[in-house]
Amino acid sequence: MLLETVLTLALVLTLSAPAVAVPPADAPGTAKPAPLPKEDVIETSAGPLALRFIGHGSLAFGFAGKTIYVDPYGKVGDYAAMPKADLVLITHEHGDHLDPAALSAVAGPDTPLVVSEAVREKLGRGTALKNGEKTEILGLPIAAVPAYNIKHHRDTGEPFHPQGRGNGYVLTFGDVRVYVAGDTEDIPEMAALAGVDVAFVPMNLPYTMTPEMAAAAGRTLKPKKALYPYHYGDTDPARLVELLAGSGIEVRVRELR
Ligand SMILES: [Zn+2]
């Protein structure tokens, strides 16, 4: 049994070995980097807030015994194994943000949903907020803010995310404001969000921001606690870290490809 395991492991290592010789994993200086945290906890005036990184544009917040999901997407997480939602926010109707199967795995027919109008049209339910509109659910103030492209567009000339269609959200947990930008570029409306505590900014190309745009967004937002690149696809988040070095903004990279 043990021998079999060892042989299988040896085979796997042989098959996956790169062409150049690498020193053994226990050699000094070659330790594998620690896995990225799946969750960060931030203290608020109303108790701890857990920021959970599911992957891609999918997040969850744990606060006061409730679980709030943003853009649940079945390709990046097993939602059947996650806690049931007390609230779900959906930014826009694209398939990696509005995934009805992932949604029904965490949300029942009565779970409150905060959505864009286009999402409400597709789902047939939810509280639809336009850019600039606000609501309060579970005692949490929620504001819908603009999310759109200025530069990046389809071959037809149509922006990937036309102005006024999708939402970003600002959620307030006690004295902590969390901005989830949705699929957007560094739009001028971000100036009104300067001084949020936590910001999640997307970098998957060509649909959202280059690291340079995300850095500009970071400098505008000046989040007090942390800036998280999220929904970054194949864009290297290390580039954003580099661009914001010395800015006083804490860029936290998590597994949110
Ligand atoms: Zn999108």
What report would you give on this structure?
The chain is α/β, with parallel strands linked by helices and 257 residues long. The chain has one domain (37-243): Metallo-beta-lactamase, Chain A, CATH 3.60.15.10. It has helices at 2-16, 100-106, 117-123, 211-221, 237-243, and strands spanning 39-44, 47-55, 58-63, 66-70, 87-89, 113-115, 127-128, 134-137, 140-147, 166-173, 176-180, 198-202, 226-230. The strands form 2 sheets. Strands 1-2-3-4-5-6-7 form a 7-stranded mixed sheet. The relative contact order is 0.12. The model is unreliable at 5-19 (pLDDT under 50). It binds zinc ion (ZN).
List descriptors.
257 residues, alpha/beta, Metallo-beta-lactamase, Chain A, 7-stranded mixed beta sheet, 5 helices, binds zinc ion
Q: Count of DSSP helices? A: 5
The CATH architecture comes to 4-Layer Sandwich
What structural class should be given to the helix and strand makeup?
alpha/beta
CATH-wise, what's the superfamily? Ribonuclease Z/Hydroxyacylglutathione hydrolase-like
Q: Return Rg in Å.
A: 20 Å
**Any idea how many domains?**
1
- Global outline: globular
Mean pLDDT: 90
Strand content: 25-35%
Number of E strands = 13
Strand order of the largest sheet: 1-2-3-4-5-6-7
